[in-house]
Amino acid sequence: MNFIEEVLERFPASKPALVAISREGERRVWHFGELIAMSAGISGALAARGVGRGDVVMTLAGNRIEWVLTLLACWRMGAVALPCNTQLRPHDLEHRVAVAAPKLCVGGEEILPLLPGHVPTLALGEFEAILDEDRPQETPASVADLDPEDPALIVFTSGTTGDPRGALHATRYLTGQRTQAERWLGARSGELVWCTSATGWSKSARNVFVAPWLCGATALICDSRFDPSERLDLIERERVNVLCQAPTEYRMLAKRAELRPLPSLRRMVSAGEALNPEVIDAFRDGLGLDIHDGYGQTETGQLIGNLVGEAVRPGSMGRALPGFELRIAGEEEAGGELQVRAASCPTFFSRYLDEPPGGASAARLVDGEWWPTGDVVRRDAEGFLWYEGRDDDLILSSGYRIGPFEVESALLTHPAVAEAAAVPEPDAERGAVVRAIVVLRDGATGERLADELRDHVKQVTAPYKAPRIVEFADELPKTASGKIRRAALRREAV
Q1: Would 293 be classed as within a structural domain?
Q2: Phi, psi torsion values for 396, nearest 5 degrees
């Protein structure tokens, strides 16, 4: 099997595959025939620099056509793509290089000097010469006949609880995206899909262009920073049909932009962390559309979603993707750890890079076949799953199990609150109490605001979930992917 033959070559060469908008605003439409030819040329350049089947090629390119072409060249020749975020710093890059041992790094001239000196590089400025058909070209690498278990992609975890780990995905991961592409992302043939995720994250690797193409849709990439008002204008101007954004982006749009109907937009999806119900309500009121939340992990790919054809349950992650077997280790409605049967998941990873094949990842499987996600969820009578928090984020107070997300969602319904985090605070009598750290909206003040927020939570959710301690901060600690680092906010018992 090979992604080039199985996906790209099944379309007419003249069919639009990708719309690329540069940081300077230059727009170009790329067709499937062009992508096949250009990525073949890049594969020749990679091979001439010593890259062979099974070698790792790192990218530091952002959402640019060079990034797409490099990944396609890797998958053509059987090399392993390691897309990285361009915001990584020297320490981050040193860690990834030490773990993944890339044969070559393709990236921008401004970031390549941050790499350890022994890593060979290919600067983006050299791409113009490689793609110029009037200049001598290296012979393209052959289209490799790959086994489904041959390595294809490395994605590093976000490092929420420790150092990021490199998850190695097999070739089957690419075409294994079809279920989530059709049943959750929900793109249709001929539509334009914009997944705004930055390169280097799990959602980027599967939904920027792989999932749209599996649906016969065109992908949009835009190499620019997030600006709430510009985001809506671009969606309207490009006539985007399906939008896939991070929860943080939806929250910022709800707070900082004037939401309005966008005629072309048909479907919105979100994944990365649980999306608060009030944000879904804001988009429903402003655009007349629901946000279809979903859930997955770097190691597993997408597992759960508010699926095509089903009404959204605000606050719910949705239901298991068809064919994916999930279970809750505990009581279904009371909540417990979410586990997935590895054999039922075509996008389940092969292993972490820092362990041998068949090593710790396989040993971690519960009952020899169930992957423990570390996330605590509950399932209602209709099969919808509701996120409560990481297993180590749960707050156990006076015998109650309190999910931080429920507390945070309640706080976010107050007009003064921009962001919130809930963590356990050691308590001699109760074991722990809820401590909330709140970032206020611009201009929000109040002498008794802490008491007001505590009372507000009691009105929105069960009173025992209300924070006994409310503190205020200018910002919350987050991972590079935007997830709140609750562990950094906890205080140990003295």
Answers
A1: yes
A2: -100, 105
Residue with tokens 């007419």: 12
Q: Domain of residue 208: give its range.
A: 3-379
Phi then psi for residue 181, to 5 deg, are -65, -45
445 CB contacts (<8 Å, ≥6 apart)?
Answer: none
- C-alpha angle with apex 283: 282 to 287, nearest 5 degrees? 130
Cα separation, 8 vs 107, whole angstroms:
24
Q: Is the dihedral of CA 453, 455, 458, 464 positive or negative?
A: positive
Q: How far is CA 22 from the centre of its chain?
A: 22
Whether residue 316 is contained in a domain is answered as yes
**CA pair distance 349, 478, nearest whole angstrom:** 25
Both tokens of residue 437?
A: 């750290």
Backbone torsion region of residue 324, taken as left when φ is above 0, otherwise alpha when ψ lies between -120 and 50, otherwise beta: beta
Sheet strands (E) in 218-263? 218-222, 242-245
Which CATH number belongs to the domain containing residue 483 in this structure? 3.30.300.30
pLDDT tens across 183-238, in order? 999 999 999 999 999 898 899 989 999 999 999 999 999 998 889 889 999 999 99
Instruction: Report the domain count for the chain.
Output: 2
Q: Residue 104 and residue 57: Cα distance in Å, rounded? A: 5
In a domain, 385, yes or no: no
The last residue of one of the domains, among 349, 379, 409, is 379
Q: Is this structure's pTM higher than 0.90?
A: no
pLDDT digits (tens, 9 = 90+) for 31-77: 999 999 999 999 999 999 999 999 999 999 999 999 999 999 999 99
